[in-house]
Structures
1.
Amino acid sequence: FHHRHVLKSWGLWTQVLPLNENLKFTLIESTDCFTNVWESLKKYIKPLTEFVITLFKGKREKINMDVYHYLFICDFLIFVILFAKFDSFVPPDEATDVSEYFRLQQSRKFTLSYVMFLIAQFLLILIDRVLYLRKHLNGKIVFDIVQIVVFHVLIFLIHPLSTNRYFKESLFPQLTFIIKSTYFAISSYIIRFGYP
């Protein structure tokens, strides 16, 4: 039915009529289908562009409640999970447990992916702190959008491919996802009401 509706809206669907000798045919020139598609898409694009403009330039209610420490707690908990249960986030051949961590610490050998994960999480905490101290709300919006996209690609695409474990089978990535979702909810509060 959708296909028929689209063809009718573009003027490409014709009713089947019985052949009649006295029937007159009218030839209609074809219309550019891309123009019709663009006109149809405008009604969906316009609210999206208005939302983005309001997001970056809209007036915000000011509430003097500082929730940055909750963001820091969420990021710090993710850092602790990465530190303690890193074997849930890497392929089995690179896995290290907490007991192996201390052995590796004595021998000063760390896997590259372990170090990269810890540095990346530390940089996320650092960037978030800089944006908070500068009270740069537009930077926070862009940072969160990029962080949402990258986090979801990592947790739902790259993690299962690299570890050969499904997301639903890995407890600590699920816990990380819940904590990061809480982080994004608190962050949306900051975006909605601005920094104190």
2.
Amino acid sequence: MAAKAAKAAAATTILFFLSLFASPIAGEPLNFSGYYNFNDPSPSDTLYDGFLLALPRVSSNSGNLRKNPGPPVLLLHGLFVLFLLRNWLLLTSLFASHKQAGDSWFLNSPEESLGFILADHGFDVWVGNVRGTRWSQRHVSLSVKDKDFWDWSWQELALHDLPAMLRYVNSVTNSKVFVVGHSQGTLMSLAGFTQRDIAEMVEAAGLLSPVGYLGHISSELILDMVNLHLDQACLFLVSILLSSIEIGESPFRVIFILLFHNMSVYWRNCCFNNSRVDFYLEFEPHPSSTKNLNHLFQMIRKDTFSKYDYGVFKNLMLYGQLKPPEFQIGDIPISLPLWIAYGGKDALADVTDVERAIKELKSTPDLVFLEKYGHLDFIVSVNAKEDMYDSLISFFKSREKSSSFK
């Protein structure tokens, strides 16, 4: 019992300090202009709740997006390295406009990063950035300092951000869109694809380390956070203590480095390059709302794939029922081709949870199981191209016979 209490206290301390010491200074957007074209982010549709999402567009310099664009592919990022708590109001100034999101697809060399590899294969790559991230902090009436700006969870990302990005890419390219998601990006995809109007805009999808259920998550740190209800407690703690603590970059970097090497959140990651940790730290975790974290913790506590639980009274008002409606994975159209890669050492997307979601699909997806892979390996592994990206690209190419493919 004493050991468990000590672990819980450590989890509280780590989470609290991560919230406080998040540096307001982060790396600039990745720039490989000598080899690739990174178009300026263009705003997608204005969403029903006023957000403007940015969609940078990437191509190989050997191609021309205007004259000969390849099939479009939309990349959907995850929550990188750790679930960062975001105080809707008090912590806004610490994170505002300095975080990365879609950059996670370009962290390794051009030969190892999926975003570059897709561009080299002739795809028209669109880099999704959900609301609140560095490139998507615009709103028609709200500021990032407004509490209402952060009043959302992955439910809104799936049902509003995802279709807005798909509609925009479709309108520019006049083509259905290939989708690749990692972690939270797969959660958005699985929930979004249950809606036929969203699924119909997608040519095929690749899901890396898919998250649909979280009932068997094995990260002790995350489980301690969940059991202590830190998603609720953090707002209270920060509101009391924030004004008396000086914010700096160095403490956060030390904690982040320890977490990155310890991987207590993401378990054992087999294949990332340890020498690049300092570079990864330049593109530190992007912000997310506390409500989003709370929604994820609800999934862990209840082992469900449901909309946000507001409590019985508000659920009745919003949903017309006492419990939030569940997303039915079986509603994903059988006509939508799916490719799924998952790992045996993934402490977030546990094999049991992933295979439960797979069984609920009416279709039979192409599967890649990597026994040694942890959660981060799917985007930063130095062996990912041979282990899975080549398979994903072959899967996409088999669904699209465009002459622009290389």
3.
Amino acid sequence: MDLSKVLYLSFLLSLYLCVSPSVCNPRRRRKDKEDTGPLQRAITYTNPLVPLEFWEKAKRKPRRKHLKIDLLLRKMGQDFDSSWMSASKPQKDLKSVVEISDDQVAELVEQVSDLNLKEDLSNILSISPFNNESEKDDDTKTRDDDGEPRIKEEIVSSKDITQMANLLQQWLIKKSSCPVTYKWKDLGEYFWPRWIRMGSCTQEKSGFVDKKPNCSWPKGLHCVPGEALTLQILRWHCKRRRPHIGSSKRDRPMKCKWYKVPYPVTSSCKCDCKSKKHF
């Protein structure tokens, strides 16, 4: 084949391929891939690899094209959890109190069972002043009509002690439990989803908010955040493009995009002596 024909066919092939901008423009190809697939996590909460310094308010707000639900859902991928986040304001913005989990109850029951409450109560009642007074009763109260010795009746039966121990166990478990109060929080327009379900260890009693509920007797321990659940959400961030030769910092245009960042929330509360950071 003539060399001129080969060059001509190569030229036509290049024109055909360049009909799609993403083929001829690698930067556009990377952008298309980014828009259609889930974003990689920028950093992890426990081990930050690429720390980002976010401004409290970005230089440019996300536009309507940046807020398309289907696009943002693709960026979130499997990190979107409807039980912890919402793209729109929840219809019922009511606080919900969730009691401690079954695992925490089982742990408290095991700890209370190790106290041997039945044995301690039996020992306390055996040396109580009521029993001492019964021993001081005259001899006529300890004999029947025929003069035979009569066995004294137990002041507190074994069944009563068991019931008392069970009630005391229930009281200790209830006193040591720390429920979580959940409410929806609006993070603002620079986050997506902007509504996050936040957990708190505070309790309301008669209109008064107790920020550190007491959970022990004697007092000293308080309900503080326990485990933290790390959510992955999108954060809008703007930064200036790389400078060109002879250009100043102000002349550089802004480049804004969504980043996937960790966001910790309190998922459980526990009774502890040290107050920890409340997410």
